[in-house]
Design brief:
424 residues; alpha+beta; 5-stranded mixed sheet; 4-stranded antiparallel sheet; 9 helices; 18% strand; rod-shaped
Length: 424
């Protein structure tokens, strides 16, 4: 979940709880205040009724509510004890002007007149008050919803503007390429934390770029310095071989040294290539036809396949496969896979190349057993029974696939080794 949405989530939940509690308290407080007003009015009516009874004792015979909004009925002393204090309650009763039952508020209290106890009851219709409370209830609900939406929308707009510098820095960091000289965009913010973030990010990028440049120069210089003495050793050994006075044993020894020097030279080139891939120094990409490149590579390897009497089969999909990648790395990727399939093949063996619309699969026959998947793509990891390579070929393949988000997989079935590269 995005930071902005997370902030709004916490804010919305907090507002829902706080405003919800406030709305409930306000509603019940408003309802109690309405009933307090009704109760005060009933108390006034009761006092007025008591005054009227003193002036007109005949009212003591009004034992029902038919004559008005009051009732007087004689009670015993024990009953008077129950109503010696004012008793309020809500009830339903028919009023004189209506035959339907209506919600009323009733006040009951005991009075003593000429030694006899009477129960005075006055009522007041609460229909209008209840309508008012209900209207207020829905008003609070809609106000609550409108308030929540307004606060969330305003805070969403405010938080977007507030976090805008952060997202600017984040986008620049996502688009940052160490091999390019462009830095982060300037941010317009007076917030101390965002200014500090920008400063720290600039310093980190600068250190990263300096480290990248130093490492690039080191690998280039190291490769060059190693290449020169290897070339000198090779040329000296070749001159020695050309001398006729060498006996057969000395010539064989020199030949072994030349072979080791050649392997050392190839190892130096492989390590340099891995370093350049890790440092993302291949930035020029082109649209490449995989089928055309495979055919060109197979033409270059024709002498090797003919020598080992290996048959080649190429199956292509109707939809040609294209990749957007660096031409040199793409050639290294497929050449390593093809050379691997040929070197680890058997005499009179076969290599089958399947080019699909989103993948390429290279299978070869072999006398070697199934490879260990856990060590397959590790650097300097070799099959104990193999005399070919320096243990970096598959590591280079893996590094190129990771650079372009390709998926490479290995399978083995009935003496057939298969490597498949999914490019989409």
């Amino acid at each position: 979940m995005r930071l902005l949405n997370r902030s709004l989530q916490y804010l919305a939940v907090s507002i829902l709880v706080v405003v919800g509690i406030w709305s409930v308290i306000f509603y019940f407080g408003f309802r109690d205040e309405v009933y307090d007003i009704v109760d005060d009015n009933l108390e006034d009516q009761l006092e007025l009724l008591d005054s009227r009874v003193k002036e007109d004792p005949s009212l003591l015979e009004s034992t029902s509510f038919e004559d008005g909004m009051f009732s007087i009925s004689p009670i015993t002393y024990e009953e008077a004890l129950v109503y010696q204090e004012e008793v309020f309650r809500n009830t339903l009763m028919p009023l004189p002007f209506s035959n339907d039952l209506e919600q009323v508020r009733m006040l009951t209290e005991a009075y003593q007149v000429n030694g006899q106890y009477y129960k005075y009851q006055v009522v007041s219709s609460t229909v209008e008050e209840d309508d008012l409370v209900e209207s207020m209830f829905w008003f609070i609900i809609w106000l609550y919803i409108a308030l929540i939406l307004t606060i969330v929308l305003i805070n969403n707009w405010a938080l977007k503007n507030l976090w805008s510098p952060f997202y600017t820095v984040l986008k620049d960091l996502k688009d940052f390429r160490v091999e390019q000289s462009s830095g982060l965009s300037d941010i317009q913010s007076s917030t101390t934390e965002f200014q500090e973030l920008k400063r720290v990010a600039d310093e980190l990028i600068e250190r990263t770029r300096k480290s990248y440049i130093n490492q690039k120069h080191f690998t280039e210089n190291a490769a060059h310095e190693l290449q020169t003495p290897i070339a000198v050793i090779t040329s000296k050994l070749e001159l020695i071989l050309e001398k006729a006075e060498l006996n057969e044993q000395d010539a064989a020894t020199v030949g072994e040294i030349l072979e080791i020097t050649s392997r050392l030279n190839q190892l130096n080139k492989s390590l340099l290539l891995l370093s350049r891939i890790d440092n993302n120094q291949f930035v020029e990409n082109e649209r490449i036809s995989v089928s055309d490149m495979i055919r060109r590579l197979m033409e270059n390897l024709e002498d090797l396949t003919s020598y080992k009497q290996i048959s080649i089969q190429i199956d292509e999909n109707e939809d040609p496969l294209y990749v957007e990648a660096n031409p040199y790395l793409t050639e290294v990727l497929f050449q390593n896979l093809l050379v691997n399939a040929i070197n680890h093949n058997k005499t009179n063996g076969s290599v089958k190349i399947s080019v699909d619309y989103n993948s390429i699969k290279i299978c070869n026959s072999s006398t070697e057993e199934k490879l260990d998947r856990d060590k397959l793509f590790k650097r300097f990891s070799k099959n104990p029974g193999s005399k070919h390579g320096n243990g970096l070929g598959l590591a280079i393949i893996k590094a190129i696939c990771e650079l372009y988000d390709y998926q490479i997989s290995y399978s083995f079935n009935d003496g057939i080794h298969c490597f498949e590269v999914a490019v989409q």
